[in-house]
Amino acid sequence: MRELKEETGIDAAGRDVRLVDAMSSPDGHLLLFGLLPERPAEGLPQSAATDETEGRHLLRRPEELAFPLHTLAVRAWFEGRYV
Fold first, then answer.
1. Residue extents of the structural domains in the chain
2. Among 1, 42, 63, 81, which is most buried by a count of CB atoms within 10 Å?
3. Residue 54: band (very low, low, confident or very high) from pLDDT cuts 50, 70, 90
4. Residue (of 41, 73, 72, 68) closest to 57 by Cα position
5. What pTM did the predictor assign?
6. Once rounded to an integer, what is the mean pLDDT over residues 7-17?
């Protein structure tokens, strides 16, 4: 939840996260992907660049992202595998 807050400004409780995927990268990093309950976009903080991100971007279809495992997770989302 710390990373979510640091990189997006979104506050959420750990108990609200539903784990949907776990992936390992070839260099040994473990990535956990989770979903939060739906919330209105108006209630989210303004998107802003940080030291680690350019801000939030709304995806309407799968796209190539900076990291291969993130791209795989986005593809899985749009294919309906994280319902």
1. 1-36+57-83
2. 1
3. confident
4. 41
5. 0.81
6. 91
Q: What is the residue type of 14?
A: G
pLDDT of residue 4: 87
Q: How far apart are CA 61 and CA 79, in angstroms?
A: 10
Output 20-28 pairs: Cβ under 8 A, ≥24 positions apart: 20/82, 21/73, 21/76, 21/82, 23/69, 23/72, 23/73, 25/68, 25/69
Q: Which helix (H) or strand (E) holds 72?
A: helix 68-78
Distance, in Å, from the CA atom of 39 to the CA atom of 44, rounded to the nearest integer, reads 8
What's the rounded Cα separation, in Å, for the pair 37 and 43?
13
The residue count of the chain comes to 83
Residue 15 has pLDDT above 90, yes or no: yes
Distance separating alpha carbons of residues 72 and 62, to the nearest angstrom: 9
For residue 7, the model assigns a pLDDT of: 81
